[in-house]
Amino acid sequence: MWATTSDDSSSSPLMTLEAYPSEESMTEEDRIKMNRLALRNKGCDLVIACERAGPAQDGRCYTMGGIDMNAKDLIAPLHQI
Questions:
Q1: Which of 17, 23, 15, 16 has its CA nearest to residue 53?
Q2: Is 0.90 surpassed by the pTM of this model?
Q3: pLDDT of residue 13
Q4: Euclidean distance between CA atoms 78 and 14, whole angstroms
Q5: For the residues of 11-78, what is the DSSP string, one character each?
Q6: Is 3 helix (H, G, I), strand (E, B) or coil?
Q7: 17 φ, ψ to 5°?
Q8: Distance CA 22, CA 69 (A)
Q9: Angle at CA 81, nearest 5°, toward 55 and 19?
């Protein structure tokens, strides 16, 4: 967790900013934490991924120049949630 904000110290955070490593670098703990984002009622209401690439037909993510972002360990597998 990088940053958390709330309207008072006794309540749950209004917003939490989290970052995840690329798929090749993820630990089982990272995967469990990321998958909790998708849980109904206990997960989050909104996930925002800035400049997020999605997988191509072959399942790999590429830059506009055709560089394989998975091979270079540049992208977290957020498309899995």
A1: 23
A2: no
A3: 65
A4: 21
A5: SPPSEEE-----GGG--HHHHHHHHHTT-TTTS-S----TT-----TTS--B-TT--BTTTTT----G
A6: strand
A7: -105, 125
A8: 9
A9: 85
